[in-house]
Amino acid sequence: MSEPVKIAPPLTDAVIEKLRAGDKVLITGVIYTARDAAHKRLIALLDEGRALPFDIKGQFIYYVGPTPAKPGAVIGSAGPTTSGRMDAYTPRLIELGLKGMIGKGQRSQEVLDATKKHKAVYMAAVGGAAALIARSIKKAEVIAYDDLGPEAIRRLEVVDFPAIVVNDAFGGDLFEEGVKKYRRVG
Amino acid sequence: MRKVSAEEITKTVRALCISAACDLEPDVVAAVKAAAGSEESPLGKEVLEQIINNFEIAGREHLPMCQDTGIAVFFVEIGREVQLESSLEEAINEGVRQGYKDGYLRKSVCHPLKRTNTGDNTPAIVHTTLVEGDKIKIKIAPKGAGSENMSRLKMLKPAEGVEGIKSFVIETVSVGGGNPCPPIVVGVGVGGSFDKSALLAKKALLRPVGTPNPDNEFDALEKELLNSINALGIGPMGFGGTTTALAVHIETYPCHIASLPVAVNIQCHADRHKEATI
Prior knowledge:
Chain A is α/β, with parallel strands linked by helices. Chain A contains 6 helices and 7 strands, in the order E-H-E-H-E-H-E-H-E-H-E-E-H. Helix content of chain A is 25%, strand content 25%. In chain A, strands 2-3-4-5-7 form a 5-stranded mixed β-barrel. In chain A, helix 3 links the parallel strand 3 and strand 4. The model of chain A has no long low-confidence stretch (mean pLDDT 95).
């Protein structure tokens, strides 16, 4: 197995273009959390012509709804949720400069087209590995939609957050390539 | 008659909620470890090792293994010599309320359309059966949505028979791909009615992984389906590999002469189930 690539958002097109489907990455820096309800509100803001609660240019969104932090802990368990539920909202955020999404499972063709057109990557973290992943989160702060509880938008500071590039900016697709390699049926 | 108080049920349920979220049952741990040994994809093997590492951290530090601590599903067997001193559902819901709060578990239950969170992970889903004796057996199987959302049900034509069942199960796993967090456990309910088949599929998930179906014919079908599913190549987290499912479990029931219901309930690798007897 190849060594992981270290990346630190906000990312430029030049860094995105170096990533390929199947690359292991370690993310250090700031990433933002958002899932279904938060995405719905972000898009509503855009529809009203208002600004988003954070500057999305070059940033990463992690699809996660963590468990409550125990006393003294930064965050609770925090593994990825199914990305496909965000498909309807994602292309618009990519157009605005979103560079990376972290979740699990397949994306729609519209999302994949947007990642190619605007140079973005979709990465997967290991679903269910929530206690392990939480160890790479060093700081967590709710920056919007506190009323949404686990679905609030959080600003996370992470160190060596582990993910795998699934869809790169050139149409590379780990799910397609990986499954083809191990498929034993006609 | 033996009296059982609401407090006793609540206390038991509270503890079950917390331990189910943090301590994985040994049957599942053993199955994932075996899969890590046999997985052919190096990346798939790495994913399985990460999953095992996560189980160990969760158990040791008493943290939820997955952030989706699920909607709380219960199967309760009540001995007919038991006299309940209060509503069973209320006592269970109070246990869920306390367990999800005190265990720092995520509250994931909301109004189906307004999407407002109920705030305490209630109401639980409670299935009850009356049995002989003076005990209450409570089984909890908290269910995350990633895998639940990939579950499907189909009313087959009887002429489609076993081939129809096989292709529907394989198609369901195929459509789910990496979404339900493979390696998965596949619960299949065959027969009964529309509702019964779904319940059978869920009950099938309660059987410990690695134990055979007592019916020889269905045991053979489970093994055949498991081989076909693992030949799909989906692999751990859908990254490609030889381990897509850890097990296929089938439960059956007689059905109408004109029907052949088949339900497929998908369970992720965080196959949480615990039980206690009062």
